[in-house]
Amino acid sequence: MTRVLVVEDDPQLVRALVLNLQARHYGVDAAPDGATALRLAAARQPDVVLLDLGLPDMDGVAVIKGLRGWTRVPILVLSARQGSDEKVAALDAGADDYVTKPFSMNELLARLRAAVRRTEDTPAGPAATLVETEDFTLDLLAKRAVRDGKDVRLTPTEWHLLEILVTSPGRLITQKHLLNEVWGVSQSSKTNYLRVYMARLRRKLEKDPARPRYLITEPGMGYRFEG
């Protein structure tokens, strides 16, 4: 059973989420504040976290950073905050997705399924399990990235995005395809997700992130990996 941790201080929304998730056979724990969320996450080891940013005791970004200190569990942010700066701050802190309130339950469940799917180990083909460049090495089977002899920590979303690109070297992967595969959505309005995550991957893997050699942008179309 997939276990979900709901971090939300609105009792009515918590009830709606718990009922909908349990009806679809998810196990659910709920936390009304950040401190309880961090404690429950450590004790219950959820498979995915649904996190409101506006918590009574701490900002949700602080909770994301607290979780990212020890776990790669997918984190879906739920927030009424509309500003792109706040979305980028949450994604930069390590969130995997951002759903703006009010949202449809069907969209949220689709995003949740996509987040869980990203964490499942899907064996790559024999020829694609190891990707070696002059600057870094990726072991796709072990989900391990090494740069300058040191492990590079990547979130599940970063891994999923990277895997799609590196297993089709030289091929243009469209924005729509990446959004659908990684986040379960294809709306062009979500292309800022791709910009944020590609920037993070370049910072972690490229020698000169401002002039990427491996993770190439095709403006207005998509991205490709040059090995």
From TrEMBL:
Kindly give the CDD domains that the UniProt entry links to this protein.
Answer: trans_reg_C (cd00383)
Q: Which Gene3D superfamilies match?
A: 3.40.50.2300, 6.10.250.690, Winged helix-like DNA-binding domain superfamily/Winged helix DNA-binding domain (1.10.10.10)
Q: DNA binding happens at which residues?
A: 128-227
**One Pfam family linked to the record:** Trans_reg_C
Domain OmpR/PhoB-type spans what residues?
Answer: 128-227
Q: Which domain of life is it from?
A: Bacteria
The protein's matches in SMART domains, at most eight in alphabetical order, are given as:
REC (SM00448), Trans_reg_C (SM00862)
Provide the positions where the record notes the PTM 4-aspartylphosphate: 52
Domain named Response regulatory: which ranges?
A: 3-116
Give start-end of the signal peptide.
none
Keyword set, alphabetical order: DNA-binding, Phosphoprotein
Record's protein name: Response regulator
- Please report the organism this UniProt entry assigns to the protein: Streptomyces violaceochromogenes
